[in-house]
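Complex record, six chains
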Amino acid sequence: MTAKTFRGGAHPPEQKDRSSGLAVERLRDVKQVVIPVNQHFGAPLQPLVKVGDYVKRGQKIADADGRMTVPVHASLAGIVKKIEPRTQSNNLDGPCIIIEAKQPEPVDGVVESTDDFMPPLDPFVCSKEEALARIRAAGIVGMGGAGFPTHVKLAPSKPISYVIANGAECEPYLTIDERTMIERPEDVVEGVAITMKIVNAPEGIIAVEENKMHAIPLLEKAIASSPRTRAGMKIRVQLLKTKYPQGGEKMLITAITGKEVPSGGLPMDVGCVVQNIGTLCAMVEAFRDGKPLIERGLTITGGACTKPANVIAPIGTPVADIIAAGLTAVDDEALRRIIYGGPMMGVAVPNYAIPVQKNTSGVLFMNEEEAVHYEEETCIRCGRCMRACPIRISPALLAVSVETGDYKEAEKIGLLDCIECGSCSFVCPAHRHLVQKFRVGKQILRTIKQKEAQNAR
Amino acid sequence: MKSLWKTFKQGIIYENPLLMLMIGLCSALAVTSSVSNGIGMGLAMTFVLLFSEIVISLFRKVIPNSARIPIFIIIIAAFTTMVDLVMKAYFPELSKSMGVFIPLIVVNCIIMGRVEAFASKQSFLPVVFDSLGMGLGYTWVLVAIAAFREILGNGTFAGIQVMPGNFQPILFFILPPGGFLVFGLLTSFNIWLKNRMAKSEKAKERA
Amino acid sequence: MPAKGMLLSSSPHSFTQISTPRMMLSVIIALIPASVYGVYLYGFQALALILVTVLSAVASEYLFRKLIKAKTTIGDFSAIVTGLLLALILPPKTPLWMGAMGAFFAIVVAKEFFGGLGANPFNPALTGRAFLLMSFPAAITTWTMPHGLALADATSTATPLALVRQGAALTDVAKYFGASDVGSLYRQLFMGYRSGSLGESSILLVLIGGLFLLALGVIQWIVPVSVIGSAFLFSWLLGMDPIFNILTGGVVFGAFFMATDYATRPLTPAGQAVFGIGIGLLTVIIRKFGGFPEGVTYAILIMNLATPYLNKMRVKKYGFVPPVKPAKPSKEAVK
Amino acid sequence: MVTIVLITIAFSAILAFVLGTALGFFREKFKVERDPKIDEVREALPGANCGGCGFPGCDGYAEAVATGRSPTTKCTAGGSATAEAVSKIMGVDAAREDVVSVLLCQGTKDVAVSKGEYVGVQTCRAAKLSTGSVKACSWGCQGFGDCVNVCKFDALAMGEDGLPHVNYDNCTGCGMCAEECPQKLFVMVPREKKGSIVLCSNRNVIKANVLKTCKTGCIKCEICVKSCPEKCITMVNGIPVTDYSKCTSCGVCVQKCPTHAYKLLEVDVMGEKKKVPVLEA
Amino acid sequence: MDLIKIFLVAVLVNNVVLMRFLALCSYIGMTSDVGQSVGMGFAVTFVTVLATAATWPIYHFILVPLGLTFLQILIFILVIASLVQLVEFYLKKNIPGLYASMGIYLPLITTNCAILAVTFENISFKYSFIESIVYAVGVSIGYLLAMVLLAGLRDRMKSSPVPKFLQGTPILFITTALIGIAFMGFSGLIK
Amino acid sequence: MKGIAKLGLVLAIFAAAACASLAVVYAITKPQIEAQDQIALTASLKEIFPEAVNFEDVTDKIASKDPNIKFLNAVLVKSENAPIGVAVKAAGPSYGGQATLLVGITLQRSIAGVRVLELKDTPGLGANANNPGYFVKKAEKVTFPGQFTGKYLTDAFAVKEDVIAITASTITSKSLTKIIKTAGDSAAEWLETVTADTSAETTGGK
C-alpha cells in the first residue's frame, strides 16, 4: 500500500512513544465536574437546571433551539452546586454547571439507577431524520478540534462519495486515537458504517498515518469481520505519510482523493465527510447504548508528566482531579507550560484545574526544555513557510501585509483561508509568530468587512 | 534692522532651502560633483532669486492676483535667461559642465516658493535680505556637499589637489549614486537637526 | 498546583531546530571548498583578503548596531557570510583596504541602513562589489594568474571573458591558459585553473557547495537552474559559446550563492523562475552589448529591483476559486 | 540692437496677450463648482507645486487640508508662514466639545495578578486573543500599549507600572485609543468635567474573586452607593456609576472605597498626579 | 536604429532620475504608492510628448527665423505651463474619468524639471522632430521606470525596521543610490 | 470678458518689459558667446602648433572615410603665411558615447599633437584619456594622448603593441586611436592634393 499525502506541511518531532503503548484507563469515582455550557461551534445554550437540582448521569442539562446547537449532558449523577463563569480550555470565562457527585437516597431500600440514557436505536433501520435527531440528542460534536455539530455535518446538501475516518492524529504527543483504533477497531468500523448509512456514501475510508502502522492489521481484521462489510458496505484502510497537518480535514481529503476543498467551502463540496475517531465511537455508543457524549478519551503526557496516560474521563472533570485520582502524575517543579490539545494547535492555559471538554483530545505538561520560547527575529525571507503552508497562502508575504495593516492585500493573499495549523510558525528559523499574527489579522479583517457591509447598507 | 538680520538668518539656517525645507533638490544633486560647479550654481541661483524677488516686490501692487503666476514665471525666466547668457559668454567652461541645469533654475521650487510666500507680500529691504539669506543658504550647503564629494571622489577641492598623492579617489562619490547617498545622509542629518531644534525649543518653553 | 506562572503562548507551541544562524553556518560551510582552493591558487594575499573582508564586515555590523543602540546581530553569522561572499567575488589582488571598505559598504549601506538581515533590497556582497568597481575601476579589474602559495610576484593578466571581449577566439583563450583545445579549456575552467575572482575559479567546488546547500534544503533549485539555464540558452541564441559563457564570469557562483540570497530574491516559485531567467538574460546582454565583461553582478542587482513585483506572482492558494464577476442584477431582481 | 529689441517686444507682447486671454477665457469657461475653502487654502499656499507635502501639487494638498485629511503644516516650500496662514483658515471650526480620554483601570503590575507569563506578539489584541487576558482579571488592561501606538498626538505613553498614561495636555479626545483597546477601557470625558469616577471595569459576578485578581478592583461592596450624601451613585451592570448632575465632588466615595477604585476626576485623574516614569518607546 | 538607441539611452543608460537627478521632487513625493507612481509616470509621459511636439516647431519655425532663440527658456516654460493648464481644463470638463486618475498630477507637472529639460535638450542635441519625440518618450519612460521601481521597494520597506535616523526621506535617497548602482550595469550598453 | 482682456494686457506688458530687457542683455553678450567656440579652438590649436598665427577653414575639403567618425571642423594652420600643418576636430564613438578629439598633423605626416575635447567614458578608466595626471608612461610622464605626439602616420597604430592602452580600458584606447588615425589619414590625404600645387612653398621643410 503506498502512502498518500498532500503538498506542503512540516515534520514536528512526534513524541508519541511516551504514551502510545499505554492502554486506555477509565477514570472512576469523580467527585465533582465543571461542565461548560457551551462546548460546540454555534449558538450559545441555556442551562436547563437550577442550583440545588439533582441530576442523573446522562441527563440533559443545557440546550437551545436552532440548527447549530448541541445539548450538553450531566456526566455525573449529583447535585447542581453552582452555575457560574469559570475559565474554559479556550482561556475564556464561560458559564459552567458545577455538579457534585451524590448517591441518591435509597427509596424503599431500592437505589434508583443513576443513569439517564436513551433507548438504543438501530441506525441501519431507522430513518435518516431519526438518526440525525439521535446524534444531536446525544450531544455529539466533532471531538478533534472546533466542536462542529455532527448532526449538521451529517446532513450535507450535496451527494457524498467518501466517508473518511480521520485516524491520522498528526498532532505530536497525542495517542488517544491510536489507542482507540487498537483497542476498539470494531467500533471505529461500525462508526464509519453508520456515517456511510446516514450520508448515503458508497465508500468508507479509514485514514492512518505510517507511524501507526500497527493499527492497520487490527482495523483490517475488524473490517473483514464486520457485519456491515459482509452486508456489502465498502470500507478500507488508507495509509498516509506521517506529516503535519495530515489530520486537517482539507489536507486529509486532498491526500486521499486528490481534490481540493474550494476556498470558503466545506468537505461536502468535494463529496467528502470526515469524522474523528473519537466521534465515531461516541456515535456508536449513542445508538447502541443510548449513551450521550458524557465522557471522552484523552492523552495526558509531556515532559513534565511523570506518568503519561491515555484516559477516559467524564466531560467536565478538572484535569487536576485525574492527577488526584492517581491515573497520571505531574512534576509541578518541572512544569512550565500546560496545553489543552496538541502542541501545534492547542491552547496554553494558566492552570490544570480547567475541565476536560468534548473537544479536549489531550493535555500536555511541558517542562522547561519543551516550553522553550524564542524571541521573534526579523524575517530573513528564506521562504520555508511558503513551502510548509499546506494551503499555499505565502505566509511570509501575508505577514508583511498584516503587519503594515494592508488588509486588502492580506485578503487577496488569503488571510481568511488560513487554517491556523501552525506549520509556518513551526518551520520559521526566525521564530516569527506568524499564526498568531494571522489570527489577530483575521479578527481585524472580519471587523473591517462587517463595518464595510454595514456602510454598504 | 534686527528683524532684517533675522530674515537673513532664516534662510541660512532655520529655513535653509536644502537643509531644512528640502526643496530645490534636483540642481543641488546634479551640480555638486565639483566645488566650482556648486559655487557657480549657487551664485546663479542667488542672482535670479535676488532680482526676481526685488522686481516682484516692487511691482506687487500692480500685479493682478489672478495673473500672478504667469507673471512670476515671466520675470523668473527672464532673469534665468540673463544668467544663462552671461555664463555662456564669460564662463563657457562652467556653463558647459552645468549644462541644462542653469535654464532649469526657472522651475526651481525655491524661487517660486519664496516669490509667492515672501516677495509678493513684503517691501524692498526684507526682500533683499530674504533672497540673499536664501541664496547664500542654498550656496553654502551646495558647496559643502560638493566639497565632500569632490574631495573624496576626486581628491581635489575646486580643482586643486588637496589629498596626498597616494590617495586613491573613491570615484563612487562623484558618480550619480554617490550623490544620492551623500544627499541621503545629509537629509538624515537634517532630520536630526530639526529634532534637536524642536527639543531645545521645547526646553525653552518650559524654562 | 504549581506555584509559578505558566508560560502562556499562542499555538503552535513547538518549533523547529533550524534557526537563522544554523542556515548561515551551512552557507559558510558550503563556501569553504571554494575559499580554500582560492587560497591555494592565490596564496596568502587571498587568505588575508578573506580575513579582512570577513572581519570588517562583522566589525561594521557590530559597531553600527552599537551606534544606533540596537540589538547586536553578529550572532546570526550573516555578516560573516556577506564578508566571505564579497572576498570570493573580488580579484585576488584587491588591496586589503579596499576589501575592508567594500565590506563596510556592503554591511552598513546595503544592509543595516535598511534594517538589517532580511530587510535589504539588494544583495549586500554584490552591492559592495559594485561599489568597489565604481570607485576603483582599475584595481577591481586587475586580475592575476594563479600562482599558488609561492610568494612570487603575481603577474597581471586578463580573464577569459575579457579576452573574448577583446576579440580573441576561444582557441586563443585556450592557448593563453595553456590548454590544448577548446574542450580541454572547458575542462580546465570546470576544474579551476584560470584567472578570475578569488572564489569562482573551480566550477566543480562551487557546484559541490551549491549542491550541499540544495541537499540541506537551505536553497531551492528554481533560481540556480533558471539562471544557468537561461544564461546557456540566451548566449546560444545570441551566437556566443554557451558552455564557455556559463563556465566563466561567476555565473555558477552567482546562481548558487548570490541569486539565492533570501532577502533579495522573490519568495514565490513563479517569481523565482522569472527572476532567474532575467538574471541569465541580463548577464548575456551585458556581456554581449554592455560595458562589463562578466555582467552577473549587475544582472542580479538589476533583478533585485524587480523582486517586489515578482513577489506578486503567487501560487494559487489551496482550493482557489476564481472570483466570479458579480452578474449585473437584473431590474426585476432589484425590485 | 534696436531691431532685435523691437521684434522681441512685439513678439512677446502678442504671445503673452494671447496666452493670458486664452487662459482667462478657459478658466471662466471650464469653471467647476467646489468648496470655497479649498480655494482659500490654495491661495495661502505658495503654489510651487513641488510635491514636498506628499500630495499631488498645491491643489491636491489644499483639498486634503480643506477636507480635513491632512494637517495644516505639511507645506515645506512655504515654511512656517504658510503653515500659520493655513491653520488660520482651517482653525476656525473647532467648535466640537473638548473631551479627553480616561483609562478605566488601575491594574498596575504591582496590584494586578498576572495569569501567567505571556510570550508572543506583543500587542494587547494578540495577547487577549491568545490568553483571554494576560491578567487574572479578564477585564483589565493588557499593558502592551496598542493605544499608545495608535495615538497620533503623542498623548499616551506606557508607564513603567505597566499601564498607559494619558498626557491630558496633548490629548485631543479623538477616541482612537478607545477604538483600539480590545478591553474597551477608555472613555471620553469632557476636559472640564468634575466629579468622581470608578477607575475599574471588572464585571466579575463572583465578588470574592475580584481581590484575588486585583487589589484595586471594584469589589461591588456598594459602600459608595450607601455613603454618597447626594445619593448620586447607582450600580449599573455590576459597576458603580456616578450621576454627574448631582455629584458635588465631596469625595466621600473616594475616601470610603476600600480598594481605592473610586477617584476624583479633577484631582486624581486630570490633576497633577504622581508622575510615573515613562518607558522609552 | 538611431531612434532605438536614443530611446534606450534615455531609459536605461542616462536615466533621467537615477543618473541625471531630474524630477526628484515628484520622484520622492509620489512613490509612496505603486498606483500613484504609475499614474504620475503616465501623466508625465503624456505631457512631455505634448510639450515636445509644441516646443520643437515653435523653436525651429518661429524663434529661429525671428532670431529670438534667446527667449527659449521663457517661451518654453510659458508654453508648457499653458499647455498643462489647458489639458487640465479640458480633461476636467470633458473626460472626468481620465481627469480623476491623471488630472490630479497635472499641476505637479508644470514644475517637473524633466519636461523642461527634455525640451531644452531636444534643441541642444540638435534632434530632428521625430528624434525629439522619441527622446521625450524615452526620458519619460525612464522616469516612469524609476518611479515604479522605487515605489515597489518603498512598499517593501514599509515592514522593514529601518533605523530611526534614516526613516522617511533619507532612506529613499539611499535606496535611489543603490538603484543607481544597479543601473550602472547598463552603462556602456549602447555605444 | 473685460477682465479676461485686462489679464492678457497686463501679462503682455510684463512680458514685453521682461523680454525687452532680455533682448538688451542678449545683444551685449551675443558677440562674446559666438566668439567663445573660436577662442577655445584657437587656444587648443596654439597648444599643438605653438608657432601658429593664421588659420584657414578647410572643413568642407576634408572628408572622413569612416562613416562613424565625423569631422566637425578642420583648419589649415599657418605661421604668418606658410602652412605648417592641419588640425582636425573629429568626433567618433567611444565607450560612453561620442568623443571629440582635436588632432594636429604636421606637413611631414606626423602627429603634432592630440587634445581630448570631450569624453564621457567611465571616470577612473576610459576618462583617464582626458586626465592630465594619468600617465601611460609613468617615468616620462607621458599621457595617453601625449604618446601620439611625433608619431608618423606610416607607423603602426595597433593598440597594446604600438600604442600603450589605458589600464583596463581597451575599448576607449582603441576607439580614440581609431579616431586619431582616421583624422590623421584623411588630413594627410588632403595634404597630398594641396601640396601638389603648393609644393614649392611647403616641401622645403626638414
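Note: The longest helix of chain D spans residues 2-29.
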